């Protein structure tokens, strides 16, 4: 459909896409700079009798290996993922609703294509924002990498635990694909919310809020929570099935709400 091509170009080349990528990279660099410095300072000032000056320097240097840098970079990046993926295109429908553009399409009998295009483009833009950031992220840590002697930052008996120890770059790539699908799903969630509210800020931050509210509730009552998607390497007993089911449920619910509000319900706002 031509409208999908137009919307994809509009989303990918937009200032919002650039802003989301910049926000993601800044959050990564903040973690990669602040956390190693804190760790290095603690090591350097340590009074442990068995920790010689040479051993301190060795440990500080080892904190610059790619696995440790990746872990440090995730400190803030994973926190902001549900927001980053929504920035490029999630509120496009709400903007069109406020401007009356969607009503023009109703008159032209293109509303069905318009709605489907919004779904496709929003998912792809959310996917791409996380994927592009993650690919740049992997490139950066490989440029800085100080060696293969990784710190013990990963958990045993977790999903892809053997891969992250034996082929870290492949692990980071697979992680990027999984979190990119998370980005697309949460962008669709934001799109659904934008069909229910008239406030752009609320529509933009709601997926972020729902993610952490779900994480809080999940931790309190000990059920699987949203954190298993982009923190799966810290949870024992989690596999791809659990991640897929959670994202699939969120995706289907969000699509259902959006279609009911904008198309099936004949509201045509």
UniProtKB/TrEMBL annotation:
Q: Which residues cross the membrane?
A: 12-34, 75-94, 115-140, 170-193, 200-218, 238-260
This protein's UniProt keywords: Membrane, Transmembrane, Transmembrane helix
The protein's name: ABC-2 family transporter
Q: Which organism is it from?
A: Fonticella tunisiensis
């Amino acid at each position: 459909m031509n409208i999908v091509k137009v919307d994809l170009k509009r989303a990918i080349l937009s200032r919002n896409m650039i802003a989301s990528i910049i926000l993601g990279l800044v959050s990564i660099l903040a973690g990669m700079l602040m956390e190693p410095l804190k760790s290095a300072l603690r090591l350097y000032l340590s009074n442990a009798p068995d920790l010689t000056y040479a051993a301190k320097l060795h440990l500080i240097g080892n904190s610059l290996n790619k696995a440790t840098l990746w872990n440090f970079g995730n400190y803030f990046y994973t926190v902001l993922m549900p927001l980053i993926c929504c920035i490029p295109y999630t509120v496009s429908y709400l903007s069109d609703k406020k401007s009356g553009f969607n009503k023009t399409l109703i008159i032209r009998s293109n509303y069905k294509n318009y709605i489907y295009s919004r779904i496709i483009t929003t998912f792809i833009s959310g996917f791409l924002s996380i994927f592009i950031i993650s690919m740049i992220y992997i490139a950066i840590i490989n440029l800085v990498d100080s060696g293969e002697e990784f710190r013990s930052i990963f958990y045993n008996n977790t999903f892809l635990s053997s891969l992250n120890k034996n082929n870290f770059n492949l692990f980071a790539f697979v992680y990027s694909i999984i979190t990119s699908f998370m980005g697309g799903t949460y962008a669709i969630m934001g799109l659904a919310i934008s069909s229910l509210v008239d406030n752009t800020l609320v529509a933009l931050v709601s997926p972020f809020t729902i993610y952490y509210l779900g994480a809080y509730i999940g931790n309190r009552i000990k059920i699987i929570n949203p954190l298993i998607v982009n923190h799966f390497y810290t949870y024992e007993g989690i596999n791809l099935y659990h991640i897929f089911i959670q994202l699939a449920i969120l995706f289907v619910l969000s699509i259902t709400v959006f279609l009911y509000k904008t198309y099936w319900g004949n509201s045509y706002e």
